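Internal ticket #5521
Category: modeling
Description: The requester needs a full-assembly model to guide mutagenesis choices. All entity lines are attached below as received. Residue total reported by intake: 253.
Assigned to: D.W.
Attached entities:
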Amino acid sequence: MILDQFRLNGETAVVTGANTGLGQGFCVAFAQAGADVIGVARRSMQETREKVEAAGGVFHEIIVDLSSPDAISVIMERCEALCSRVDILVNNAGVIIREDAKDVSEENWDKVVSLNEKLVFFLSQAMANRYFLPNHYGKIISIASMLSFQGGIRVPSYAASKSAVMGITKALANEWAPFGVNVNAIAPGYMATNNTTNLRSDAQRSEAILERIPAGRWGTPDDIMGAGVFLASDASAYVNGFTLAVDGGWLGR
Ligand code: NAD
């Protein structure tokens, strides 16, 4: 039956940036759908743990700074110790630095691109080589952005990295779809999380953004839960290499 295709019972999901915002939303959604969740973040994910456990789920945490060179080996070693297989990877952790293009330093560029783009590729590769390709099953969901489609204002490194997420998603889907691995992305619109605190506190920018969203409101972590479970489940078995906007209609304007 169709609703059974959305169930994630017996599966294990790894979610990066699981302590706040959209990452926390994915963890809760997967737990509600029946999966065990491994959260990855720089600090303790107590609030996420409480929400996952309240949904009847099991939560494990891996505390690691994703900008450190050994982050991927730490994640893979901990996953090995925690569970027999991983079925779902959500590349959610991301950083945004707002600055004029004329002022962007190489250091800031590398900070954004190495987390938002390079890690997405190499963590996907590590998970695919260890779990997804040998098991002929896996779901990779990377978090893109409206700035995978548009240039944005004062966020050139972010726009570059999120455009790359869309490209990486298509490239990996082309190679891994034959092996039963679904690689897709979600492009959230303007969501009320830490990522947009500065934007929302700028009255002029905030009003201009809100006025352009057909749904007439900022999104919330609850808004991405349905798309997350869909792309993590058998319901999306024939969806490959696509970036799904969850944006209150922003891209349609
Ligand atoms: P957020 O700032 O709450 O989440 C970002 C997450 O990344 C946090 O959990 C943070 O701890 C983690 N992170 C950042 N640097 C890290 C590092 N070095 N090591 C470990 N973890 C690190 O904001 P959010 O909106 O929930 O962002 C989640 C994702 O959604 C990001 O990729 C962001 O770019 C993307 N996104 C957000 C919006 C929005 O409007 N909020 C829109 C489009 C895309």
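Resolution: model delivered.
Comment from assignee: Residues 17, 19-23, 41-42, 65-67, 92-96, 115, 143, 145, 188, 190-191, 193-196 surround nicotinamide-adenine-dinucleotide (CB under 6 Å).
Ticket closed.
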